[in-house]
């Protein structure tokens, strides 16, 4: 083979080895489809949603009146009255709490149910982020495997070239040994990446709650997820839509209603009832109303005389409310820190992608082309050629890493800002 043909072959191999980012996703199952599968199948998500639906059933329980008391009594020794002996008695009593107590308890339960829905929202948003993050890892592993395989092919071409020059006595056998060492090292790295790919596919399928051996399709090319960063608006959106904060907002409202419930619990309770007494007729005489049954209406008041427990109940509710306020501040501070870190990661990934794609890879390619041309016609430093090839491989892998990191950072910002939030009405919840 002539040297110019070898050069053409090597340059063609390099062109195939370069991973150039293009602004669309090619074949492969859509990431959105995987998100739908995860949302429908993930057992943790199902658990949180079931807890929400269960919490809704607390509302009719706490807003219902106490069960009425029905009693029956039988006189072992009948009580003699003017109109006859009383034989038995039946009574019904119904207690009523202070005005507004039941509605206040309903408000407490309703706000707690809303907070439970936010727990579900947080679990779903976190699941979607984990699915995206894992999918980007799989994409990176696939691309890294392709890059290593193509670089191994290039090193094989280098090995053939060095063997030809060694056989003609133009170079030392050291050139052949160097390229063989480098190729074997890449082969070991390649096998490790393939093992990691299998492990990460299992982890991805676990998130979707499907068979661990199910094939996972990823895109051949990954577009950079657009994200126009307005830090002020983004911060406001996080504080208003993040489920972790929304959950505490509803819990705070519930705690406020609990204070109202505690105050109303210390108020009197009223009772209404009646007794119906069965009376037999007298046989010794026939007075007016002989044998008429008696009917009695009763009104009662339960007086909260011992105030200690009601005062403690109100104090407990106030302390719970204060505790939730402290939690709100702590979560808000944590979210602000997470936002700054995510923005830093996003900017760093953007810089790295631009550096490797537009500068480092292009320069490394130019340097390799020059050295390769010199090596085919003279005794240029073959070690330097291999070193630059290693650099190019490093830059290619780093560029793909920056693409995955950038998309992961955007996914995390979406998670923080509640981009996938919904409402019970939108989910058509049937209670």
UniProtKB/TrEMBL annotation:
This is TolC family protein. Residues 176-210, 332-359 form a coiled coil. InterPro entries: MdtP/NodT-like, OMP_efflux. It holds the Pfam family OEP. The keyword Coiled coil applies. Belongs to the outer membrane factor (OMF) (TC 1.B.17) family. Keywords: Coiled coil. One of its GO terms (molecular function) is efflux transmembrane transporter activity. It comes from the Bacteria. PANTHER family: BLR4935 PROTEIN, OUTER MEMBRANE CATION EFFLUX PROTEIN. SUPFAM superfamilies: Outer membrane efflux proteins (OEP) (SSF56954).
